[in-house]
## 1
Amino acid sequence: MEDDLEAFLLVSEQEFHDAARRNDTVKLLQLIQKGVDVGAKNKVERKALHWAAGAGNEEADGLSLLHCAALRGHIRVLEFIMEDLEDISLDQVDKFGKTALHLAAEHHQLEVVEFLIGMGCTHCCKDKQENTPLHLAAERGHTDVVQWILETGVDVDDANADGLTALHLSADRGHYDCIRILLQSCCDINAQTNKDMSALHYAARRGCASTISLLLEAGANPNAVDSQHSSALHHAVFYNHPEVVRLLIQSECNLDAVDGRQQTALHIAAEEGRQHLAEMMLVAGVDLSLTDRQGKSSLDVAARGSHVVLVDMIIKADRFYKWEKHQVSASQHQVSASQHLVSASQHQVSASQHQVSASQHQVSAPQRGGPAPQPSFRPDRGLETQRLRRVLWELATRQLCRGEWRLLAQHWGFSPAHIRAIEQQWTGMKSFREHGHRMLLIWLHGAVLGGHNPVKGLYEGLAEICRCDLAGGGSAPQLNTWGRGVLLWRLKNEPTLSVSQKTSGRKPTSTPPAPQPPPKPAPPCERQDGGEGP
């Protein structure tokens, strides 16, 4: 490569270039005395002084360019150039349109930056991409260089050819200190690029939680959208940054904002199967009825992707939202009734006002979460419901016939969309067993969360679908078949924690041994026709 560069040089000139590169001052003086052309250029228009300046050799003679010395940070070479050489322009540009100040700022040569600014170079000159020295320093995270350039009074919101300011470039690279200095300089925190990207968008894509927190505290708009109508939340979910998602949710961003494909952030989480991100949004509260351009809800998207756990989580959330809405409506009715009592009975004003206050507190409690712990929509693995979950598994895999789980689901208020999403899973000809088991666990989640008695609910459900052989009463010695009443008998005799115990964290003082059920013949649905049921 070096032979190619020296192709246009005479032997003496090539020796002169080599001596400048090696800082061999004795050889340089000898060649100069012999009359060598000190301004000879090689194939790429490079002179010996380029090599000398780039290597920091101030004793080399000849013409000068600032770029090599500025790039390498050789302040003594720069001082020599400015004092002893003529016709030197501080704002001379290279083939990329960069001045010496550009190179010094980009490569963190703070002393050179101070020297060039002190010599009167242009502070806000732009290269071919319209980047200023401030842009390049901010992009590389050179905090001290950024601070020095800002003190010269440059426009902190100056944009390059793509519409990016120094803040955009710092946020894209996650340079916290640079962002802090730029914010202290009163930059436009919500400035948008040619693609309508804000600094918050870039920070969300990168996933730097500290940067996100800094921008939000400084007043960044969490609901700003880019040219694709994507918000910062869309980017954070797509690039899988849980901590950023949490911070954006805490900033009360719009969880139901849709992008260019009419997808919410939950659609993206469902498409990618990201359970942890989906649960954060489900707990915060989202509109599950929103559909994308194909008419698919987030539940449909999760089912199409075979994300079974995520499907169940969305169904649990949907059922919880409906229950919560019903509770709020009932509490508001209590408020109205209490107010009527106040107007009808003046002598009971104080007592009725107390009822109104208590009812209003019940209305506001579900909205702000109340004293109860936040709901979780993840699979239940708690010890409180372990026995009951085991019974439900036995019911789904051994007792319920094909199609009966759908009847139970309809009785318990599962929507057709819920049932379709559950049935999307295919594990073979006996998939109905897995479908039924999932449905029962989803129902149990809602029963426990709503404070209902799961044993009573299961009894009523089995009776409703005409499975009295499973829901019938009686004691264990009176049962002459496994199926007749065995589930109710087990649930009555196997201790489980009450809802109040579950929420308070208390456990039973003692756990009696589980009673043994009667001998097990073939399940009823297998005895009907010798097969797996209708």
Note: The two ends are 81 Å apart (CA to CA).
## 2
Amino acid sequence: MAEIRLTRIEQGQTRIRNVPIAVTPEGFWCCPSPVVFQKSTKTHNKLPKQHPPVSKKQIPPPQRKPPLVPVPVPVSSSNDKTEDPTPSVTNNNPAQASSDRTNRSKVENAPRKVSIELGEPGTSDLKVILFGKQTFAVKLCVHKNVLLEKSGFFLDKLSEQQQHQTSSSSLEIDDCEDIEIYVETVGLMYCKDLRQQLMKQNVSRVLRILKVAELLRFNTCINSCLEYLEAVPWVGDEEEERVVSSVLRLREEGIGVTPILKRIASENTDPPKDTIAHIIDLVLNSSEERGRREMKAIVLKLLRENNNASTSSSSGLSEVYIQTIYSSCKSCLSSLLNQFKQADADKKQIGLDVDNLTWLLEILADRQAADEFAIMWANQDELALLHDQTPVVTRNRVSCITARVFVGIGRGEMLPAKEIRHLLLERWLQPLIDDYSWLQHGCRSFDRKAVEEGIGRTILTLPLEDQQSILLAWLGSFLKAGDNCPNLQKAFEVWWRRTFVKPYA
């Protein structure tokens, strides 16, 4: 470990604080943190406490030498040497007390400066004064040849000084937003292996360095920061957004950032139809229960995120995967029908086909694109006939699809035509009633309340005569089966009021 000197100059008094800092053979140093700056300045800002006036009834304290109060002297940015202030003796005079308060205010608001020397000590030929916020300043003792070689910003500034024939031994930079990183970036100009130094930092700090390097036109540092950002993992969405926004800003300025952007964007601009189809096929063809369950949830969540996006690319993606999903629906329906046609139907395969169809229907309902599925399901007359001839222990899972269709209509997720709604109830309501007891006890995802509400709302969308015929048929089943039949009493009450209490002419 080596040390560099940080000189505090406050109101004409020079203070020196030694801070242990790692220095490489190239002369690179690590900038002191703001805590070091603050501690170094705060410890020298404390003024002696003022004693209250002595009361006549009190015994005056022993005579002691009064404290010294420094008179504020402004710090010059071009010359860090100041004359020692003349001390003034405090007394109990009110006028003097007022003067002390004024002096205190001036001392607190006076500029505070930290002096840092870069490179080989004692050889600097240029002073750069950085003025930050809250009257804080840093004086850098640097070398012209280093700054002229590394920074286009300093090259322009020093050339401008020479054109105006002004002294180039000092340079002032006002309104430094991130003075700590500004100092560190100038220090990086003295380092030969920037990559090794940046590896010690995190993504957030490198982005700050990149911003200052861009301001200073320190191209070597910019390229090293981009190489770091291309290779390092980005943790979390927030960090990724910060990196991408910084990179896009640089791209607008003509700086090559393609390697980084390749991490988040493909050169292929067409919607990845084949990729989506492949993912869906992998999930549908899996027979491992846990893997299927988890990947179904993940894919459903990601597709919902695409639905919520408002960009034209996401809209195109939606159209692509909707077509893919309907193609998969037809394949699953064909497989399900083939199983029911067999004398020894495979109960497990039927369960997988039903599970796949229910998942695909969930995706379509999220996109409000399930109307065609309702039509497909309403027209499954052969499957409905075979369902009635198959033992309930094998067939009952099929009614999960019917239940989800009714829930979708009841929620407004699908809006099939009146004829399709009537056909669905005519063809699939009675099979659902026959399987209802099995569904309640054998299907974990079955939501009785949602299903009954969906069936009732679907019935009430039909003409009043159709409501009556369906609800009267349901009433006969409900009076026989009780809890083993859907409870449609709410729909029955609405139909009753429409018919007998307030009939419309």
Note: The beta strands are 2-10, 13-21, 68-69, 88-89, 112-117, 126-131, 136-142, 170-173.
## 3
Amino acid sequence: MTIKLWAALASNELVAHAEVRDAVNTGVLLWDYTEPATIPGDLLNDRDHYCYTREDFENYVRHTDMSASGIATGEMMSKAEMLLYRSLDPAVPGSFVVLHDDATGPPRIRMDLSWTVQPNRGTLTLQRRIGDVGNYSPLTVLAQGTTSYVDDFIEAAGAVEGDRIHYRIRYSDQPATHWAESSDFVFWPI
């Protein structure tokens, strides 16, 4: 099998790992995590020439639901099939919510954060910004599978009642442009 650039592949050609890598490098496909160092089905240890099956595609490339695709798990995929089932949406934690917990009462400020994660996605990077302008500051790196965080050191960072506290979170292995964002105001009921 001759390795080609992604753009040179015909739509009905099977796709080797090196061609998938070229598609990722040109922005046509996205790795679901990072490029795999080895591929379990590659018995010859020649991953550049290894043709992707549906299972490989689902394991390594960001994709949409393939349950109704008609492509068998071990069946090799063509360029056209990969284009049909690819996803270019950034991988970010979902349902990100920030709520001011007013039960602590002034002057203590506490924000409760929660989100959903995809399984086995690795660590999460969390950042905070006080107010609507300025830069985000690193807050913490959270362990894989973490779905909540309590930020109760906000006043030490200069926040006061009336401030909007902004947060953003991403999978640490994703580009620093792929964030889920949420915010809430600091206030206490009268």
Note: The first helix runs from residue 17 to 25.
